[in-house]
Amino acid sequence: MAVREYTTSAGVRLTLKPVSRRVTELAMARVKRDYQARGEPVDPPPYVVKGMGGEELVLRLTEDLLTVTGDEAETQRRHALWAAHRDAMARMEADQREASVQALFALGIEAHVPPVEEWLPELLYVDPDLKLPEDPRDLKVFWLVHCAMTDLDYGSVMGAMTVLATGGDVKPEDVELFRRTAGDTMGRAFRQAAEGVGNVLERAMGGGGEVQ
Known about the structure:
9% strand, three-stranded antiparallel beta sheet, mainly alpha
């Protein structure tokens, strides 16, 4: 199994391992099931039409079917349903991204997590009500995100792990490219880092799974 070493801006050594895309898909599917179980309108809203024989047919709305000519009440109802659907979808997709990254970091990053007493006091200063996860894998991800990685490290690690998951290989200079993109503001730096991630992935895909 291909692995890669990565040192964060804070000097933390990480070992990156490939994680099957199926794992992140499972995490995203779990989030969708949770939303559906709570009754969140993540599926397109239904609407009823009369069939040629007078029977009622239940169909699903699309954005092109929101306006019903000559029926303002139905039009408003459909727009309200669609707005609720889009809101639920946006929240679900954000939670899915978080869940997929959680799974990716929990299973794909090996790191030595220092004793909690060495890093928790600083976080408690910021948020006295902070609660730590109980699962050691979740605690590792919590520490990585809050203490060990900058935004640029995050982009670099995500790019490298994506390439590893597709069977590619990441050269040290490709990983260092992300750090060298730091500009006058973090926003600019992160955009440049993201562009570097895209370049790495493009080369990996175009080269039969290997970065040349």
